[in-house]
TrEMBL record:
This is ABC transporter related. It comes from the Bacteria. InterPro entries: AAA+_ATPase, ABC1_TM_dom, ABC1_TM_sf, ABC_transporter-like_ATP-bd, ABC_transporter-like_CS, P-loop_NTPase, Type_1_exporter. PANTHER family: ATP-BINDING CASSETTE SUB-FAMILY B MEMBER 10, MITOCHONDRIAL (PTHR43394:SF1), ATP-DEPENDENT PERMEASE MDL1, MITOCHONDRIAL (PTHR43394). Belongs to the ABC transporter superfamily. ABCB family. Multidrug resistance exporter (TC 3.A.1.201) subfamily. It comes from Dyadobacter fermentans (strain ATCC 700827 / DSM 18053 / CIP 107007 / KCTC 52180 / NS114). The chain crosses the membrane at residues 49-69, 89-111, 190-208, 274-295, 307-329. GO terms for biological process: oligopeptide export from mitochondrion. Its main location: membrane.
Amino acid sequence: MAKEENGKGLSGKDLPRNDLQSPFAVRKIKWEGLKITLHLLRYLRPYRMTFAAGMLFLALSTGTSLAFPKLVGSIIEVIEGKSQFSINQITLLLFVVLLGQAVFSYFRIYLFSQVSERAVNNIRLDVFSKIITLPVPYLEERRVGELTSRITSDVSQLQGLLSFTLAELFRQAATLIVGMSILFYTSWKLTLFMLATVPVLGVASVFFGRHTRRLSRKAQDQLAAANVVVEETLQSVHVVKAFTNEPLEIHRYRTILDRVVNLMLFAARFRGGFASFIIFAMFGGIVGVIWYGAALVQAGEFGLSDLFTFILYTTFIGASISGMGDLYAQINRTVGASERIFEILGETAEVSVEAARNAVAGDIEGRVTYQDVHFAYPSRADLPVLKGVSLDIRAGEKIALVGYSGAGKSTIVQLLMRFYNYQSGEILVDGKPVRDYGISELRKNIAIVPQEVMLFGGTIYENIAYGKPSASREAIIDAARRAHALEFIESFPEGFETIVGERGIKLSGGQRQRIAIARAILKDPKILILDEATSSLDAESEKLVQIALDELMQNRTTIVIAHRLATIRKVDMIYVLRDGRIAESGTHQALSTIPDGVYANLIKLQFETAIEKY
Ligand SMILES: Nc1ncnc2c1ncn2[C@@H]1O[C@H](COP(=O)(O)OP(=O)(O)OP(=O)(O)O)[C@@H](O)[C@H]1O
C-alpha cells in the first residue's frame, strides 16, 4: 500500500504506518524468517547460564540413553559366554545408567522450563508494552482478537521452540551422529544396507511435510478468524441478544468452524498417509536389516550381541529421523509466529515505556490554539473531516464545541491529545506546537471525562486512582468527595473496596460519570475535556454531576463537547462546527439570535424534539 507524505512538518516517524503486511500473509524466504527467529535467542541471554546447565544435562541424558543399547548387547554377550562380566554386574550397571538418565532428565526439563518460561514472559511483556504504546491508527486498523492472539497463541508457539524444540533438535542430532558412528564401527556393511532406506524416508518426509504444513497453516488462520468471531460476539453480547441474533452468530461461527474442520481433515489425510508410509518403510527397513544382519552373523562376520545392539541403535536412529520431520514442521510454525511477533515489535511506538514512566506534566498555563487545522483520518484519507479549524482558548476559559452529529467535535479534541497527526495547520498549547511536547507530558496535562465511562475490573478505589496511580489514600477520598461520589460509594457495604467492572456491580450512568470526574480531579490537569453524555441522566443525578463538573472546571481550560445544548449556557464561548470549519462563534445569547444561524437552528431542533417527547 502506498503511503502519502502530506502536510508540513510530518516526519516519517510521526506518520502512522499503513503499509503493514497482513499477519497471515504468506511468508517470503525461509532463511529470512529463520534469521528473525534467531533474534529470539536474545531473550535467552539473561538466562544463558541456566540454559548452558540445561544443555549439559541434555548431553548427559542423551549419552546415557545411547549407552543403553550397548549394555543390552553386553547382556547377550554374557549369555553367549563371551564376556568377563556377570549378568548381575551388567544389570546393576544398567540400573545405574537408568538412574542417571532419570536424574539428568529431571534437571534438563526443569532447567529448560525455567529458561523458556522466563524468556516467554519477557517476550509477552515486550509485545504487550509495544502494543499499548503504538499509535491509535495502528490499533484501530487491527481487530482486538488478532492482537490478542499475537500475545497468546503466537507467543506460545515460541515457548515450544525455547523449551522443547531446541533441546530436542540437539538430542536428535546427537543421537543421529553418535548412533551412526557406533553403527559404522560395529558393521559398515550393515550400516550401508540400513542407510539405503533412509533417503527414501527423507524425500517422502520433505514432500509430505511441505503439504501438511501449508494445510495446517491455512487451518490455523481459519481458527484465528473463528476466535475473532467468538470474541466479537461476546464483546457485544447485549447487541446480539437485543436483536435476537443468536442464530445468526451461531451460523457465522459454524460456517467458519466447518471450514476449519474441512481443512484439518484434508491435512489429516496427508498426515495419515505419511504415518502409514513411514511405519511401513521403517519397519520394512528393520526387517531388511535383521535379514541381512542374520546372514552376516551366520557367516561369522559379527556376533549375535552386535546384531542386537545394531538393531536397537537403528530403531533409535529411525525414531530420531522421523522426529526430525516433526521438529522441522515445528520450527517452521515458530518461524511464522516469530515473524508476526517481530513485526509488532519492530513497529515504532508513539512513546517509549521509559519516557511514559518518567514524564512529568510540566508547568503549563493551559492556553489552547488551533491554527487552520486540516485533518482526515488515516483510514479514510480521501475524506477531510477538518478543513481549516481555528480557535483560540485562553488559559482557564471554558468553551463548547457544538455541531451536528459527525461534524468533527470529538476529532478536534483527539488531535489535541495527539491520538492522530493532523495534516496541516498547527495546534499549540501555551504557544508551543503539541508536536514539540513529549506525548506523555502533553497528555498528563489533559483529562477527559468521556461520554461512556469505562470502568476497569477492580475496586472503586482503584478506578479513581487510575487518574493518578501515585496518589495517597487521602487524596483519592478527597477527589471522590469533591466529585460528589462519596455519598454513593459509602452507601455500598464495601465502600471504596466495592468491585466494579465486568465481574462487579454495575454503576448507574450518573455514578460512573462521577467516578470519571473524581479521576480527573485527582489528575488535576490544566486542560479539561468534557465529552458530554448523549443520554440524559435523571434530574437528581444530572444535578449532582453538574455540581461535580462545576467543581472540576474551576481554574482549568475546559472544552465541552456539547451534545445537549442545555448544559452549555454558562460557557464563555461557543464554537459551532459545520463542514469541517467553525461556522459561528459567540456566547449563547449572541448565537441564538442570529437569524437562520446554525446554532439557532440546532436550538430550535432540540427544543422541538423535547416538545415532541411530551
Ligand atoms: N477513527 C475514525 N476513523 C475514521 N473516521 C472517523 C473516525 N472517527 C470519526 N470519524 C469520522 O469523522 C467524522 C467526525 O467524527 P466525530 O466523531 O469527530 O464527530 P462528532 O461531531 O464528535 O460527532 P458526535 O456528535 O456524533 O459524537 C465523522 O464523519 C466520522 O465518521
